[in-house]
DNA sequence: CCAGAAGATGAATCGTTTA
DNA sequence: ATAAACGATTCATCTTCTG
């Protein structure tokens, strides 16, 4: 892992890693930390070159003084210079600048995640809409162990908000691993509120004095959920505010490429060491389960051709009330109100139900060995026989 | 309850209610629905006259077409004219207008709650900051039963966001019933993420055809938590987008005054009838919060929030000799030797027995269907209802 | 009358491929 | 480009129906 210094953003050689096969032109800006101003460094990247963006920008916290716990110990709050802005206008100008820079380097189907708190997320979200990003979800990170409100004057600030957005309105082809997420969630689709502990313990980077190295280090589990949701192995994930390098470390572990931008050389060095120590997961641990959407299309006529369905066989609905006959050309014949209709399994299914549309694969059934199966079962069998796998 | 028509915003007499003692000048604009444009009606109200604001403005949804469920039924989405705006700029102008109008009528110590989704909440929040409101928290309403994502293209949109803000930076004296909230929450301070079901069933107002009267009616439990958090009995709560009247109904039940603005006469009429039917809770259920020492130790308030126990209901011991009344904040009120005491179910149980300690869950009983059950039965039922996935 | 099945529904920015 | 065809996709809760 190489750290690239200001003024030479794409000169340093990349880490060798045989598992990352890629074309030489793009390799140059992969798996690097670029040190310098975020907006300048973004300008050095080629347009439409990244698949996903994760951004954890300064929150513009406006703390009025120091905060003490009930036991009089001092809370080590974020009071770094990089988190201070003169005004909302200054913060907006900064935000607009990096968002524009990021948008340029996103591929058309790329998506962006931005995390923030109530101090900044409303401004960020409004600017994202103004710049033409298309919000897909706002996702709430519910902290399992948030810092309490010591003064008892507000609710425990127990969550942060992530905005997930496509580069442009109308984008349909963005990566979203719906089946995989659902499979890992008791077979129920994942909601917009996620529960994770904050980053503590061994995962939290410490400096030589044992103090936390970075004030806002995010938990790896959060970043892993983000990347497993909206990217795939081999993708390039850009983080314009790399900080302690959580996103890059997770990207490497999940076999994504990363590009990190960080202006603090100390943070960048710590992140580089952290990333270097990461061992990518075995590929088998990251393969996507076959999803119906990605499976190759099989025409009903292919089932007839293959002999899995014989012309003349009767199809019924699940209850056996509606009947149709398979024809040799892969269409089916339906007698409905004494009228004979011929067409695709989908069209005839819709006709039988009086519906606009119908998935014939799940509507029609065949009787085999005394039991009724949806014809989708036969399609699955044909796919298996063909040795076809998704990807 | 009177509905005031356009052009005569403060003429109609108020509902008589001896429990609301107030000065005559302010009374004129209390407990009314003002029909007409939100910004115009706000201008008719006196400056610095309301204690809390709850606003549920149009979300500016930008739906592209109709959506159907997997069973091909049609989703009855929000497509009303009042939710349509030409552009973000038009929405921003509208938002700025009503926020300015609201700010003028807020007392210096008043706070405002605004609810929205990712479609609008970022714009609203940024404008609130621009106008000088001081955000205290963003609170996430996690929906126990959200509508699923039917296409599998995004995360289930399972929450909405509320922004809670003071009128100005530096305000210290805003109402926040910290002890009461903590006492009703296992003696742990309440977090910024709240779990409530959406509004369905008998609570949902229906039109003469049995269809939902208003597309976006909010659950009363959510409004009750808001008002119990940030107002006190006798306060004036303003809702500039009254809709079906949830905020006003809850205000009346919790013995707050309300002012509602609604431009649709049909909604206003339905809200007026709804409010008229509300019976305010016994004062004993709403009195000043108990001190920290008296705070309940368990989440009895969760039973109250869930509706399994209704404020005002009587609790007794197993034999029916000792009696106490459930309060809206999850404490109970006990009359013992002509002395009124308020506190947790455990403390009041101990007091009633003259004991050091008491398990209120087994001591106190409720009568349901002619039989007395320990409230522990209700707790078990609530736990079962919350299920395994409630995190 | 009760139990279980079946239907209804909620603030939603909710396709892809081939002709 | 536009239209047609293909075919993928839902969770919790409440109400109504059926046996």
TrEMBL record, chains A, B:
Domain RAMA: 287-385
A single BP term in Gene Ontology: methylation
GO cellular component term, pick one: cytoplasm
DNA methylase N-4/N-6 domain sequence ranges: 50-271
Gene Ontology molecular functions: DNA binding; N-methyltransferase activity; site-specific DNA-methyltransferase (adenine-specific) activity
Enzyme class label: transferase
Coiled coil ranges: none
InterPro entries according to UniProt: DNA_methylase_N4/N6, DNA_methylase_N6_adenine_CS, RAMA, RM_Methyltransferase, SAM-dependent_MTases_sf
Record keywords: DNA replication, DNA-binding, Methyltransferase, S-adenosyl-L-methionine, Transferase
Key word DNA-binding present: yes
Record Gene3D superfamilies: Vaccinia Virus protein VP39
Catalytic activity: a 2'-deoxyadenosine in DNA + S-adenosyl-L-methionine = an N(6)-methyl-2'-deoxyadenosine in DNA + S-adenosyl-L-homocysteine + H(+)
Pfam families in UniProt: N6_N4_Mtase, RAMA
E.C. designation(s): 2.1.1.-
Family classification: Belongs to the N(4)/N(6)-methyltransferase family.
Classification via PANTHER family: RNA METHYLASE-RELATED, TRNA (GUANINE(10)-N2)-METHYLTRANSFERASE HOMOLOG
Record's protein name: Methyltransferase
Gene that this polypeptide is encoded by: gst
């Amino acid at each position: 892992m190489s750290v690239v210094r200001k003024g030479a953003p794409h000169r340093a050689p990349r880490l060798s890693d045989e598992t990352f096969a890629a074309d030489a032109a793009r390799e140059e800006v992969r798996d690097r930390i670029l040190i310098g101003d975020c907006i300048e460094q973004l300008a050095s990247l080629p347009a439409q070159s990244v698949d996903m963006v994760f951004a954890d920008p300064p929150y513009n916290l406006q703390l009025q003084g120091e905060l003490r716990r009930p036991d009089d110990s001092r809370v080590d709050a974020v009071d770094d210079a990089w988190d201070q802005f003169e005004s909302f206008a200054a913060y907006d100008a900064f935000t607009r600048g990096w968002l524009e820079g990021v948008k340029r380097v996103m591929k058309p189907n790329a998506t962006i995640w931005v995390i923030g708190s109530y101090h900044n997320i409303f401004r960020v979200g409004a600017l994202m809409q103004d710049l033409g990003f298309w919000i897909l979800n706002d996702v709430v990170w519910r902290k399992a162990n948030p810092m309490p409100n010591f003064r008892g004057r507000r609710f425990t600030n127990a969550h942060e908000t992530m905005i997930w957005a496509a580069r442009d309105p109308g984008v349909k082809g963005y990566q979203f691993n719906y089946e995989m997420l659902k499979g890992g969630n008791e077979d129920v689709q994942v909601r917009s509120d996620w529960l994770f502990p904050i980053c503590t313990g061994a995962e939290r980077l410490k400096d030589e004095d044992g103090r936390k190295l970075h004030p806002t280090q995010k938990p790896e589990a959060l970043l892993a959920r983000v990347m497993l949701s909206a990217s795939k192995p081999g993708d390039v994930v850009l983080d314009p505010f790399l900080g302690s390098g959580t996103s890059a470390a997770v990207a490497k572990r999940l076999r994504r490429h990363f590009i990190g931008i960080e202006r603090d050389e100390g943070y960048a060095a710590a992140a580089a060491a952290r990333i270097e120590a990461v061992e990518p997961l075995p590929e088998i641990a990251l393969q996507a389960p076959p999803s119906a959407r990605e499976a190759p299309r099989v025409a009903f006529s292919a089932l007839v051709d293959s002999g899995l369905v014989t012309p003349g066989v009767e199809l019924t609905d699940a209850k056996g009330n509606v009947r149709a006959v398979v024809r040799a050309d892969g269409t089916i014949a339906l007698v409905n109100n004494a009228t004979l209709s011929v067409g695709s399994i989908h069209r005839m299914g819709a006709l039988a139900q009086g519906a606009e549309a119908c998935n014939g694969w799940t509507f029609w059934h065949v009787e085999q060995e005394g039991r009724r199966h949806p014809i989708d079962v036969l399609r699955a069998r044909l796919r298996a026989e063909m040795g076809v796998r998704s990807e």
